[in-house]
Each structure stands twice: as structure tokens, then as C-alpha cells.
Amino acid sequence: MNTIQWLSHLLGGKERFSPKTGYQAEFGKNGPQIAVTLAFCELLTANCLEIRTQEQIHLPKRLYKLRREVDLTLLTEIEQIVAGEMSNFCTFPLLREKAAKKLRRSKVLTQTDAYLAEQQKNAEHYRQVIADALEYNPMVSVC
Amino acid sequence: MSHETKTPSRVYIDVTNACPLQCLHCCTASGERRADELSLVEIINLVDQVQGMQVKNLVLTGGEPLARADLPAILRHACQQGLNITLLTNGILLDRSWAKLLAELGVRVKISLDGVSAETHNFLRGNGAFEMATQALERLRAAGAENLAVHFTVHRQNCREIARLPELLSELGIHNLVVGLIKPSGRAKDNPALLIPPAMAAYVRQKIEALTHCEQITLQRLSDKCWGSDTEDLFGCPATCNKLGVGATGETTTCTFLGQEFMGKNVREYPLAELWQQHLAGGKCFVANAECAECPNLPFSGGGCRARALYYRQDINAPDPYCCASFAKKRFLDQHRPLLEQALAGPELAFQD
């Protein structure tokens, strides 16, 4: 199974051939939400987001915003879409809804985004991202 | 173990400054052969000194080491001395006869591939470089060379390709991967658009670390430890303590990335062991400035990379901004640990509020 097939399988979609861009993956029903959640977790755990907490009657409400110093050109295409929805503080559900809509409108996942498939063993790769963050050791590092 | 009894973990020898490429990020700005490069006799003598210092690991680099016609004699001699040899090459000149020799001698070969496609690799190195590098890896495999690795230097233009490296390595049949970040040194300083902004260092490192979950490759990390005051088990910049480099014309350095300005005395004038002892006697080449000394993480981090401190802060003793970014990430994660623990159980719920 190639990366595109694997990716579309993970995100509940199907592989499609476009004469312009070759084989690409389409999102399935929950694909955009999964992809947005993963991108959000990547950005959060890489210290790219600010978190503001608003006290409410029952639970604190968390708002997220992209840090000003983040260089968008380094982000993957999906992360760029997600980051683009966080120029102001917003809640995760709102972010997910807006970014997923934008992602779905983009219709397909490109070859560049096949990174999702390469790294994840299942569609819950974001748990791995978070687990890594909880184990983060700044001393084990690349030069 | 005191500093005086330490030997460098490895010695680098730039066997030439000559290189057929003019890579945009070359940390030594290699290209032309220098008129006064070390002769074969001098390098053979140097290899003997390395062996005499009980150093186990010898790294031959350049320039492009294969541009040196008498390299086989150097390799054979180093092998006879029982040294573990690593050859850093761009692979451009690596034909079948080189592949056969390197395989026979059991040399560890690291070939630079700075892109998963010809487009990104050749952008830095010139047309045809990707094809020649991948062909070199094929030739080495065909010759039976076992100790092969791809070295990927992350810069601003290829950062988004990190996650696709396992795919490339699988295609090439290579398991070992070394990933390093571009250093503000040599020609890279003339191309600052290639450098990773310090604010993105933690993000990029996270993408690299994610590769450890990939079963088909082995991500090789730095094994160097900094010499700490209380414990040996600290990460730090090895340049400050346990590696030694010899330039193509014989000057010594503890870190090539610091550039010509920081080159030390010449092996033509002093024995290598004496230069090493002088380096040790000179104390730390890094003394944290007031700002860096204030950091509670300094004892653990060893201060990070001095070349980056020099470039970004114009002070070799200043904080390395990448090191600061790593610890800022750690502080952020610690601050939000309850949220992350909740998210581990169910990201959907944790972020819903």
C-alpha cells in the first residue's frame, strides 16, 4: 500500500487520480476533523500556541492562539490551514469546525501531506504526539 | 574522571578543502583546493598520533574527501591502526572502485541527502547531485558495504520533507539516518534565508524526533555528553569538550562551525596530543555570560551550540537561542501537563471546553 492509499484509508476516504497532480487522497467523513486535531496537537506540543483560560461557572474555557513568532512557511499544508484559523484566540471546537470546512473545501490531500500516513499507525496519531510531549526531554536533542 | 585523562571521543580530519560542489549551506565553504594542504605523509603521521592518543573514532571529511587521490592510502593506514573510520561524502565521485574499497575496509559511509527529491536536494547542491548521491548509495550496497547512513541537514526549504524521509530511505534500502539542523556557518551565513528561525527550533526538532517511531529506520542521535561539574551524563555541545578537528591545512579546532576565526594552532608545529592538552588546560572554551548563567537549565543543557550563540548574539558565551527554545517548550508543556494528560486519554474531550 503506498502512502496515498494508506493516507486515504486512514482518513476514511479514497484514492483518486488527477491528471494535474497525480494520485491524491480524498478525505472521508471524519477525515478533516482527524487531520485538524492532529495538526492542532502538533502545533500545541511544539509550543507554537498560546493558551488563555477563561473561568466559567462549571468549567474553565480554554482559548488558543498562534504565537506571533511562528513561521508559517515551515508548517505542513494542513498545519497552515489550522494556524490560519488561530490568528485570534478561539476555542478548539470552533477552530476544528472552521479549519475542517476549509480543509474539505481544498477537496484533496496532496502528496506533501502524506506525512500523516508515514508516521501514524492508526488514525489516532495525535495521542502519540501528546505522549511524546509528556515525555519531552530537551537534553536529548539534535545538534 | 578528570578532564586531564579524557581523550576526544573522535577526531575529524578535513583531508582537503576541494569539492566539486558549491553547496549553499556548506559549513566550511569548501570548493577550491588549498595550496598548503596536509601531505599524505603528514596525514599518515596524524593518523598515527590519533591512534597514539587512544582515540577510537576517526572521521574523514573535507571538502569532499574523495577528491583527494591518495585517500585510499589514508584509509588503509587508518584501518591498519584499528580505528573506526567514518567517511562523510556527498557521493558525487563515488564510483564502483571507491565503493569496492570502502566496503572491503568496512568504512562507515555517511552520504548527504538534503531532500527527498532531486528538486530540493539539487536546489542546494546543483543539478545532478541527487541522482549521483543515490547512485553512490546503490553502488555501496551492491559492493556489500554494510555501515551506511544518510545525513539529512534540515533547513528552511526542506523542513516539510522530514516526515517523508522514511519513504526515501526505504526506497534506497538504507536504515540509518542522521538528521542535523543547518548551522549558521560557512556559506550558510551568506544564505540566511535557509536558517531555521530560533522560534521554530522546537517545532522542527519535534518533527525530527517523531521519526523515532518509524520502525524501518534508525535515527542516530549524538552520543556526546558534555563534561559537567557533577556528572558525566549531560548533553552539551561536544565542541566544547570532546571532539577535535584538524583542517585541511593543519589548524586545529574543537568545532568547524565556529569558523576560521576560532582555528587553533597547527599540527605542523605541535603534536596533536599536546594541542589537546593545551585545549584542556585552557579551561572551558565556553564561559556562560550573565544572561546564560542565569538560566536554571544551564547545568543540564551545557549551554547548547556556541556557533549559534555567536551568530545570533555575536557573543560566544551568550545563550544559544535554540537551546532557549527547547527549554521554553519544556516549561510550556510542564505548565499544561494536566491538559495534555487529559488529552492523552481523549483529545476530543480535552480540547472541547
Write a structural description.
The complex is a heterodimer of chains A (143) and B (353). Chain A is an alpha+beta fold. Helix content of chain A is 42%, strand content 16%. Chain A has helices at residues 3-10, 31-45, 77-84, 92-105, 115-119, 125-134; strands spanning 15-18, 22-26, 49-54, 61-66, 108-109. Chain A starts with a helix and ends in a 9-residue tail after the last helix. Helix content of chain B is 36%, strand content 12%. Chain B is built from 14 helices and 9 strands. A 9-stranded mixed beta sheet of chain B has the order 7-6-5-4-3-2-1-8-9, covered by helices on one side. In chain B, helix 1 packs parallel to helix 2 and helix 3 crosses helix 5 (129-142). Chain B is globular. Mean pLDDT of chain B is 90; it is low at 227-233. At the A-B interface, helix 2, helix 5 and helix 6 of A face strand 6, helix 7, helix 12 and helix 13 of B.
